[in-house]
TrEMBL record:
It is found in: Cell membrane. This is MFS transporter. The keyword Transmembrane applies. It holds the Pfam family MFS_1. Residues 165-381 form the Major facilitator superfamily (MFS) profile domain. It comes from Kibdelosporangium phytohabitans. InterPro entries: MFS, MFS_dom, MFS_trans_sf. PANTHER family: MAJOR FACILITATOR SUPERFAMILY (MFS) PROFILE DOMAIN-CONTAINING PROTEIN, PTHR23528. One of its GO terms (cellular component) is plasma membrane. It comes from the Bacteria. GO terms for molecular function: transmembrane transporter activity.
């Protein structure tokens, strides 16, 4: 599961941080911000639609190959094919269409992979396991950024390498014999945020944290180039990702295990949200290379705790065992919808307030709102 998550994350996160901004800038330098914004918005909308549908179909799959593995394999092939095509694109429309296909593939894979945690892991171990499943996300940023900046620097070769890496890393999951559908599954319960207040509050918290993260990182490469005036923005992004990943590695597993032992989830989510908000404030007021490095380290510390514990918390407030992939696919809207909202929010804030300070302060406030939203959850301490 960790390896498959690493492959999925490399495929979807590396282009957002490095390849897509550079590719779009090369095609149309004058409109790079606008084009990056609407392309990521369209892809996010595709993700919102695809993830719950693929998850519901995965829940209903009763093949000899399992119910999660067929979707991991199929979505992996779709994603890898789209990545290979993306590397050969030299038009904005072509980039938009193929990036939407990549997002469709990775989100179908996400629904199947995340459902495997509650499928196979008891509640008392989900914090620790969620940490190990979440660790590949920041690690993917380091691996992917290193590969496309130091190993393969050409556009087509970089995308193709990521596609091949994705296919290789999902193979161990495809060989996992534990993926078996229940012999007599119960009927799936309707998904209702309104009728499940705990899930609604958890959904709102995740949406806020992911919105803060999306607003804060979408234009990071441009921020480093235009505000910090770093001489090598792609390399600077890689350094920040390394610092961020170091923070995640230091905190994620420890927080997940500590949360399992104490039986508490909310205090970890609140604390991590506050740290993420602090990182955004540092970015907003610092506007220098040292402050950017400090913010990256803080973000890693906070997000490492959040990744481990929030994922475990969500699995404990799902309404039905028979519809886990569907429900997690719907909850994933809290991950993907901010990607659609962030470009509009970020563009408006940058235009209205005349710079990045207001943007990052807004992201910090949104993170604090996320901390407040998790407190009313009752079923989980």
């Amino acid at each position: 599961m960790s390896l498959a998550t690493l492959g999925m994350s490399v495929a979807v996160l590396t282009p957002i941080q490095v390849l897509l901004p550079l590719q779009i800038e090369a095609i149309d330098p004058a409109s790079k911000v606008v084009n990056l914004g609407w392309i990521t918005t369209v892809a996010a909308i595709v993700s919102i639609v695809v993830c719950p549908i693929a998850g519901a179909l995965s829940d209903r799959t009763r093949s000899r190959f399992g119910r999660r593995r067929p979707w991991v394999l199929g979505s992996g092939l779709v994603c890898a094919g789209a990545m290979a095509g993306l590397g050969a694109q030299h038009t904005i429309l072509g980039v938009a269409l193929l990036w939407a296909a990549v997002q469709a593939g990775t989100n179908a894979m996400y629904a199947a992979l995340t459902a495997s945690v509650p499928d196979q892991v008891p509640v008392r171990q989900r914090g620790l396991v969620s940490a190990f499943v979440g660790l590949p996300v920041p690690l993917a940023l380091v691996v992917g950024s290193f590969l496309v900046t130091a190993v393969v620097t050409g556009q087509f070769g970089a995308y193709l390498l990521l596609a091949v890496l994705l296919l290789v890393l999902i193979v161990p999951f495809l060989l996992n014999p534990l993926d078996r559908p229940p012999a007599a599954p119960p009927a799936p319960a309707p998904f209702r945020l309104r009728g499940n207040s705990d899930l609604g509050w958890a959904f709102g918290c995740r949406f806020a944290i992911q919105l803060a993260n999306a607003v804060g990182t979408l234009y990071l490469l441009y921020y480093l180039r235009d505000v910090v005036k770093h001489p090598d923005p792609p390399q600077a992004v890689f350094v920040l990702i390394v610092l961020y990943t170091a923070g995640v590695l230091l905190t994620s597993v420890i927080a997940g295990r500590w949360s399992d032992r104490t039986g508490r989830r909310k205090v970890f989510v609140v604390g991590s949200s506050v740290i993420v908000g602090a990182a955004m404030v540092v970015l907003g007021f610092g506007q220098s290379w040292p402050s950017a490095m400090l913010a990256a380290a803080l973000m890693g510390v906070g997000y490492g705790v959040y990744l481990a514990v929030d994922n475990a918390l969500i699995t404990e407030v799902l309404p039905s065992e028979a519809s886990r992939a569907r429900d997690l696919g719907i909850v994933n809207i809290a991950n993907t919808a901010p990607q659609a909202v962030a470009p509009a929010v970020a563009g408006a804030v940058i235009t209205a307030l005349g710079g990045y300070t207001g943007l990052y302060l807004l992201a910090g406030v949104v993170a604090l709102i996320g901390a407040a939203l998790i407190r009313p959850v009752r079923a989980v301490r």
